[in-house]
């Protein structure tokens, strides 16, 4: 069995938590962990005799399963008399810390912090129990400076932060072009500039960066500021699918409250089905929840293209998470890991079977 994944480069282990902090934060939506609401419980019996289930997510479009499921009460309905207590986060590591501390039971989170959290705990803190979203990441550039891929040489391209999901993807893509970049410093044939998503639009407008490999809605915000899309990361993946948001659960909570976990998954499956059947209404619901959480909705010129680039799926796309981990290994940021047991898809597959839908796979990384 491969050794447990550890961070390879000097200083990376100590910095692992902050390095992955901006995995899914965009344009400054959200701040510190925040208790946003305890939704009124639907009438009925408590699920598993539990009073409250604590769910965490980001106020971000790639977490629209949670945004819409919360805003429309779809998840709450499946829990009967058990209340949904929602908290929002702007960084993956803080959500992992909340999960470890018992401040939340279930969370929506990106692949890098899920991997990092699993590895740092030696496989003892979380399980990935479902998928939520795919896609929503683009390379956008200043069209006055960059007309094609070859023009990227010598240019300054932003990623959210050293070692985060988009940073690893860009470093891997750079290597595939035959270019050399030092992963730690970002210096080389292309200059990788680690910049928080909320800062990137101003950095672009000032000319400090010539483009960015970023998630939505940052990518569409840059396009609204005059950038153009040079590459959609979805085009690099089989069937144009790769995981951007997972659903995770505390292993303790899963063991103690399997009925509640199953009910939440019924809610997310029904939410994703509603989103895919009603995309425009779902977009409005997600934006309404964003306005409630952050005080401002996304403008049409940002949310419309951003929404179209995200696919909502119950499949966690486990093979793509494994590939993303391999990309980090190839870029020199990680040692070869052992992710065996990171998935437990039995509850989700039970829910899918009840809906008459096929099972989803764990790419050999599930619990035995």
Outline type = globular
- Order of strands across the widest beta sheet? 1-3-2-4-11-5-12
Radius of gyration equals 20 Å
How much helical structure, as a percent, in the residues? 25-40%
Structural class, from secondary structure content? alpha/beta
State the helix count: 14
How would you characterize the largest beta sheet? 7 strands, mixed
Order of helices and strands: HEEHHEHEHEEEHEHEHEEHHHHEHH
> Would you report the number of β strands?
12
Poorly predicted regions are 1-33, 35-39
What do these coordinates show?
The protein is α/β, with parallel strands linked by helices. Helices cover 37% and strands 18% of the residues. It has helices spanning 16-19, 64-71, 74-79, 92-101, 111-120, 165-176, 200-206, 218-224, 251-256, 258-277, 279-294, 300-308, 318-330, 346-354; strands at 34-38, 52-57, 83-88, 106-109, 126-135, 137-141, 156-159, 191-194, 211-215, 228-232, 243-250, 310-312.
């Amino acid at each position: 069995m491969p050794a447990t994944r550890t961070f390879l480069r000097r200083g990376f282990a100590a910095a692992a938590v902050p390095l992955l902090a901006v995995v899914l934060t965009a344009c400054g939506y959200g701040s510190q962990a925040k208790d946003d609401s305890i939704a009124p419980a639907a009438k009925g019996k408590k699920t598993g005799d539990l009073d409250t289930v604590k769910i965490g997510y980001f106020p971000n479009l790639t977490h629209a399963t949670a945004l819409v499921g919360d805003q429309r009460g779809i998840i709450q309905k499946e829990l009967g008399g058990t209340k949904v207590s929602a908290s929002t986060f702007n960084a993956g590591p803080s959500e992992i810390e909340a999960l470890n501390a018992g401040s939340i039971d279930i969370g929506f989170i990106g692949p890098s912090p899920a991997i990092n959290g699993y590895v740092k705990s030696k496989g003892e803190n979380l399980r990935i129990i479902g998928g939520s979203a795919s896609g929503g990441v683009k390379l956008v550039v200043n069209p006055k400076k960059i007309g094609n891929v070859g023009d990227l040489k010598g240019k300054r391209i932003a990623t959210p932060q050293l070692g985060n999901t988009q940073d690893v993807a860009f470093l891997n893509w750079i290597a595939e072009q035959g270019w050399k970049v030092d992963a730690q410093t970002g210096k080389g044939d292309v200059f990788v500039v680690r910049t928080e998503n909320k800062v990137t639009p101003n950095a672009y407008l000032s000319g400090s960066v010539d483009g960015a490999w970023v998630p939505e809605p940052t990518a569409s915000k840059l396009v609204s500021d005059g950038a153009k899309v040079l590459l959609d990361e979805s085009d690099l993946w089989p069937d144009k699918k790769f995981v951007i948001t997972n659903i995770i659960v505390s292993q303790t909570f899963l063991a103690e409250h399997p009925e509640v976990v199953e009910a939440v998954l019924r809610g997310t499956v029904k939410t994703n089905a509603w989103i895919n059947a009603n995309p425009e209404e779902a977009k409005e619901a997600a934006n309404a929840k964003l306005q409630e959480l952050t005080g401002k909705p996304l403008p049409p010129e940002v949310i419309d293209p951003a929404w179209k680039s995200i696919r909502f799926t119950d499949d966690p796309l486990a093979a793509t998470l494994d590939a993303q981990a391999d990309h980090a290994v190839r870029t020199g940021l990680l040692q070869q890991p052992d992710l065996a047991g990171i998935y437990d898809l039995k509850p989700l597959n039970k829910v899918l079977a009840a809906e008459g839908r096929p099972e989803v796979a764990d790419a050999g990384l599930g619990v035995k």
